[in-house]
Design a protein that fits this description.
Elements: E1 2-6, H1 10-21, E2 25-29, H2 37-41, E3 45-46, H3 50-54, E4 59-62, H4 67-75, E5 89-92, H5 98-110, E6 114-121, H6 124-128, E7 132-137, H7 140-150, E8 154-161, H8 164-194, H9 199-207, H10 214-225, H11 235-252, H12 257-271, H13 282-289
Parallel strand pairs: 1-2, 1-4, 2-3, 4-5, 5-6, 7-8
Antiparallel strand pairs: 6-7
Length: 293
Amino acid sequence: MKLGFVGLGAMGEAMATCLLRAGHELTVYNRTAAKADALVAAGAKRARTPAEATAGNELVFTMLFDDAAVQHASFGPDGIAEALGPDAVHVGCATVSLNQARRLRDGHAERGQHYASATVLGRPPAARAGQLFVVLAAADALRARILPALDAFGQKSFVVGDDPVQANLVKLCLNFMIFATIEQMAEVFTLGEKGGIAPATMFEVMSNSFYTAPVHRNYGKLMVEKAYDPPGGPMEIGLKDNGLFLEAGEDFRVPLPTASLLRDRFLQSYAAGEEGLDFVAIFERVRADAGLR
């Protein structure tokens, strides 16, 4: 397939690498051009603008940091909308607010263009290995065109609806579950530590009994090893994504008390000067609250 990819951060670069490795013809764009160098050396074409990364391609993927970056790349000067063909699809993979997801859906629809959302679950190593889980929401007529490309970086794709916004809602919900599980484990590890049970011992018992999900095994391991730096999931992403989940709760009038607690936990980490660490480092704030150092 002829594909475009806009946004080559840690996740985007890994996903684009998988698409190239799968044999797709790929054009890439990143605001910091040097981040495309490795992909260009491997055979991708370099674009100077998002529009150039879009022109003539069947699908163009976006994997950008926040609402503002996605909006600018999509509808700003030399943006995707300027070059998206009538049969092409913009496939948004970024974690954005529900309002931004609606802006993308409606903005393309007003221009007679196609838009789909394919959010992903997993960290950069999983992306590079092609082992992400993908949550797709797209009109039925578009799915068969998108799913083969998703197979390059995803081990499994879930179709959750016709409205692209639905994939963003699922992503926000599942990210919250990661944060909530980290908080649960942090409290359990801290209580055990104060009772003379090392976090590593508690982790060994839990991860080899009833608590064997990847979220327990993977994030628990990071916590026990205090593998906070360099961050695989930066603290700013935790604070941002948890905030988007709270916004969604307000949108649908759903109280989310645990998310409110997590917001404060992330802010505690910022106040402690830990904003540059992985978001699993909220464990240290739980320990500090219990008098541990």
